[in-house]
Amino acid sequence: MTYRLFPITEPVTHEDIENYKALRLTSLKIDPSSFSSTYEREIAFTPEIWAQRLTSRFKRTFITSTKDEGSISETWIGMVSVLGPSELIPSMLELFERVGVGSDWDMYILVGMWVHPEHRGRGLGTRLVKEGVEWVRTNMDPKNDVEGRRDKMVLLLVGDDNASGRALYQKMGFTDSTSMPPDGEGHSWMSLKVS
Ligand SMILES: CC(C)(COP(=O)(O)OP(=O)(O)OC[C@H]1O[C@@H](n2cnc3c(N)ncnc32)[C@H](O)[C@@H]1OP(=O)(O)O)[C@@H](O)C(=O)NCCC(=O)NCCS
């Protein structure tokens, strides 16, 4: 089976949005404990909200897809999104400020990491994280223009009992964050410095 890995870039098509929505809802349904959001919350999203998720210039979503032999259409089977500093919501920025993280770093957050169970263990999760980190390395967030070139840090929340997720991130160089407190719901932060 062959796989393709690609970023969703402008212009975002209606088909991109439909494929993304189907993939995200499937991930929430199959692995509810891996995410902070829920299927019930996101099934109620309007088309505008789904479109917004993909059209921000300050984040990037990477997809892995597969195509059956002889078929012309691809099926999206894995994804990860990386939020840049300009995409972070106020509550997240407040948390960073409270714990004294982020004043010296440009903070990026990796979210929504998921590979369909039928395609796990084939290196797709590794490839998705690699692409996300590479985007961080090369991305110029508008905050750089205001605050000057700074080092970057990628943060992610992972379930304490998520052995495969933790193993994947550790393999990619992430370590348990010493500054960010656990969320109190069984998830802890891991971080990676990117220069
Ligand atoms: C975590 C996840 C994305 C890994 O995807 P994947 O495509 O299977 O990952 P890979 O094949 O690249 O494997 C990467 C590493 O993960 C670890 N891993 C994979 N499957 C594992 C398993 N069943 N048990 C323990 N470790 C495992 C291994 O360290 C592996 O590296 P190795 O093959 O060099 O030993 C996938 O299991 C998943 O979508 N899980 C549900 C959602 C989730 O937990 N997301 C993360 C939330 S933070």
Give structural notes.
- By secondary structure, the chain is α+β, with helices and mostly antiparallel strands.
- The chain has a single domain, classed as Gcn5-related N-acetyltransferase (GNAT) (Aminopeptidase), CATH 3.40.630.30.
- A 7-stranded mixed β-sheet has the order 1-2-3-4-5-7-6, with helices on both faces.
- Helix 1 crosses helix 3.
- The longest helix is centred in the first third of the chain and has 17 residues.
- Coenzyme A binds next to strand 4, helix 5, strand 5 and helix 7.
How much is the radius of gyration in Å? 17 Å
Low-confidence stretches: none
How many strands? 7
Q: Which percent range fits the helix content?
A: 25-40%
CATH topology: Aminopeptidase
- CATH class category: Alpha Beta
Instruction: Give the integer mean of the pLDDT values.
Output: 92
Structural class: alpha+beta
CATH level-two architecture: 3-Layer(aba) Sandwich
What is the number of helical segments per DSSP (H or I, 4+ residues)?
7
Element string (H = helix, E = strand): EHHHEEHEHHEHEE
Number of separate structural domains: 1
What sort of overall outline do the alpha carbons produce when their principal axes are compared? globular
Small ligands present:
coenzyme A
How much of the polypeptide forms β-strand, as a percent range?
A: 25-35%
Rounded to the nearest angstrom, the distance between the terminal CA atoms is 35 Å
CATH superfamily: Gcn5-related N-acetyltransferase (GNAT)
The spatial strand order of the largest sheet comes to 1-2-3-4-5-7-6
Could you give a short account of the major beta sheet? 7 strands, mixed
